[in-house]
């Protein structure tokens, strides 16, 4: 059975959404032994991509995190157009959609350095570890700073492996 | 064991994995897996952490109620 990340990634790839896996999951995919609760994705901010993204995520019935029960909440193409970064939830899972990230910017700024990995049978763009380190350092929250030594060591070991 | 150059104990022989705060053996282990295998390995830990945090919150609330009585 596929886990939440695999299901989301499969839905987005099938829907031809332009996105990059960022945040802790991007570090996990590259070999960092950290644990993260949320799935963070950076999406391309174009009209076509808003509609593909909203359509692909529709089956997940996402809601903005922290909204009281009963408050109407519509997450669609229009919300994507007028918003930037969204913290969403569904059935106990958290999904953050980011239009911009600290220090490194949005999709168009990072896609050239993103790496491509096979995730559950799909070729997926993943934020380069160097960029993840930059954005976490810039964000500067204790939880971001705490993982920096592990990320830096992973990067170093990856470079050693590639150089070997 | 001592380092031939310095005569001091060679710390790397007594700290094979961690080398300070980091456990590099865990990273090496992850690097041997495919990205999908890494994700699935992470998933079991992620669910464990979510459950642990949920239990900690329940414990905190129950303790708060007890103190309020």
Percent of residues in helices of chain A comes to: 40-55%
Protein chain pair with the most extensive contact, residues per chain: A-B, 26 and 23 residues
Specify the overall morphology of chain B. Answer: elongated
- What is the multimeric organization of the chains shown? heterodimer
Strand order of the largest sheet of chain A: 1-2-5-4-3
Total of helices of chain B: 2
Low-confidence stretches of chain A: none
User: Class of chain A, according to the CATH hierarchy?
Assistant: Alpha Beta
Number of strands of chain A: 7
List keywords for this structure.
heterodimer, A: 164 residues, alpha+beta, Beta Polymerase, domain 2, five-stranded mixed β-sheet, globular, B: 69 residues, mainly alpha, 2 domains
Describe how the helices and strands are arranged.
The complex is a heterodimer of chains A (164) and B (69).
Chain A lengths: L3 H11 L4 E4 H7 L9 E5 L3 H11 L5 E2 L12 H6 L3 E5 L2 E6 L8 H4 L4 E5 L2 E5 L2 H11 L2 H22 L1
Parallel strand pairs in A: 2-5
Antiparallel strand pairs in A: 1-2, 3-4, 4-5, 6-7
Helix pairs in contact in A: 1-3, 6-7
Chain B lengths: L23 H8 L3 H34 L1
